[in-house]
Amino acid sequence: MSSILKKAAVVSIPNVRQALLRSNPVLASSLLAKRAYNSKNGVEMTVRDALNSALEEEMTADEKIYLLGEEVGQYNGAYKVSKGLLDKFGPKRVIDTPITESGFCGLAVGSAFAGLKPVCEFMTWNFAMQAIDQIVNSAAKTHYMSGGNVNCPITFRGPNGAAAGVAAQHSQCFAAWYGSVPGLKVVSPWNSEDAKGLLKAAIRDPNPVVVLENELMYGVSFPMSEAALSKDFVVEIGKAKIEKAGTDITIVAHSRSVGFALEAAMLLEKEGICSAEVINLRSIRPLDTETIINSVKKTNRLVTVEGGWPQYGVGSEICAQIMESEAFDHLDAPVVRVTGADVPTPYAQNLEAYAFPDTEVIARVIKRTMNKKIGA
Amino acid sequence: MLSTQKISLAKVAAKAFITPLTVRTFASSAARNVSINLHKGSFESYNCDAPALDVEISKEELVRMYKSMVTMRRMEMASDGLYKAKLIRGFCHLCTGQEAVAVGMETALTAEDKIITAYRCHGFTYMRGGSITSILAELLGRKAGISGGKGGSMHMFTPNFFGGNGIVGAQVPLGAGIAFAQKYLGHKAATFSLYGDGASNQGQVFEAYNMAKLWELPAVFVCENNRYGMGTAANRSSANTSYFKRGDYIPGLKVNGMDVLAVHQAVAYAKEWTVSGKGPLLLEMETYRYGGHSMSDPGTTYRTREEIQHMRSNNDPITGLKQRLLEFNIITEDEMKAIDKAARVEVDQAVEEAKASGEPDLSEFWTQIYQKDAGIPYVRGREPEEFHRY
Description:
Chain A: It is an enzyme of class 1 (oxidoreductase). The complex is a heterodimer of chains A (376) and B (390). Chain A has 376 residues and is α/β, with parallel strands linked by helices.
């Protein structure tokens, strides 16, 4: 047995948050409140409210859009994302389903074939495994199989990935699975602007779109720009966003990992170790390879970060695409993936902490990658 | 069914050297058994006979039932407190109010019979042999937890209890599979697969019904109808709320699930039914949870406080059994108080033991992904230099 978790912990940065707070309280507190990454408009919104506004605005604009799922109506949403929608739009457009994912997902897809624009909520994406046949075989493939005769303008949404202490059956990240399916679009918002813009784009998109939200992000507030507050604000699906420009290394992340990547980048910049460029993927499929390649050409180093399992994951895909592209010739070090650990998620808090990446792991990997040079 | 009841009564009477008549009319301390008449509305049957309304049961068994329910409730209340103190994380689904189901089932079954349920599983884990300490330690995510701290509230198991399952409905075909194995291996035992009113509409439940009937599996499907699937009332989720009839070609029995003796009687009946080769049976336990769906749900946005209070005051399983124990002079008020106190002490002690248990060792992070010697040489952690070699 040669587990080296303890060894890794010893050489890691002891306490990222403490280091930040000691060095720059203002920066630290603003970082910790995740305020630093969007425009300084003054209006803040939680991810939950951003999703709620997206739903409300789109449903107001187009009567064909309806929401269905468990507890979305009378309960106001298991996580309160659909709060107030039943009161505003009524039971025809906000539908509480029985606990039958396979059935109600199929029903939603069928209604999309027939011209409606359903938003199908899964209480978590774990439960969508019961419905994955309908998502993949019915929604994703039908436009192709029908020679373009059948359309499926459906949006599937719900929280994805780890929460806190919900154990093995409730913590899986499905980005890689859905990301591999032709016919689907897959988005993974991080902050409130992402959430609002991507959900609106997904609902407007005539293709089936999978929206992978994150429960731990629902309650987090972010500033919203003037543009983001508008009824017509959409974030283009398939375009990543450079959240922080840098010169020495590229960090690509999606969803909650973006926040950790930014914290790690700030910390290392503060320590004078490197200037990291942080890319928020926003979309899993289509993957914005162009933005990643351009960044790698500039920085020559790449680290990917995700919450999902390592094998056959988002990071694996990015590595492969980089290898196959012109960016390969620009690499000064091998690409490294930071991922969830290759284990079913344990419940105990100390074990769960080793199952998902955080600022410390990312910073450690960045440091190590900065110290490598091919051919040196 | 009546004939079977008479036979067992005679057997018992013979053992005790007392005539059945004596047993029936003089429930004195001299007789070991009592005969208790269940309320007429305790059962409703579908394509089968209802069990007899007179229950023949020993005093010891009754006292054990009482003790079990009281302890179970204390355990769940302790869990409630620990969750609010943030010592339990994630999901926590309590069975407060539903104690009669787990307790009544256990007394009618043997260790050879198997049980499987969904996530409202702490009570069943206890009845199926899980110690209170190991259950609480599991909730706290500690080494002494019944799953080593790796499963949490929804994933508790004992050798004859298959959890503890987080995905609504999945446990039902699993249960049919356990019954399949029992038949395959020639065991004269049954598997009880529990699910709620919320899960009752899942397609896989009907798939399990079909195979169980087709292949005559010793499967008893038990719908714990507590009227709400999370926040959704039964009539808003189910086109047919007569859950005991939903098996269609499988006979069914509706049972007052707040009466531990009715549960006991129905489960004994169901076991006999399936083990004697009549195939599967469906039981619907009409029960009620005082708490919300889980600790994250106040439980009052979709039902009235009056309803909850009414159930507590008029249908509480523990109060109901208490009244019977006193009525039949089985134990005194003081003895009852002693049991209550002992249960409180036992649970308090278990809480301390659970708290004293440490977190699992980090080495446990890498174990039990597969069986030992699975031929998997290496597991990766969050980055290439976090890994484990076996």
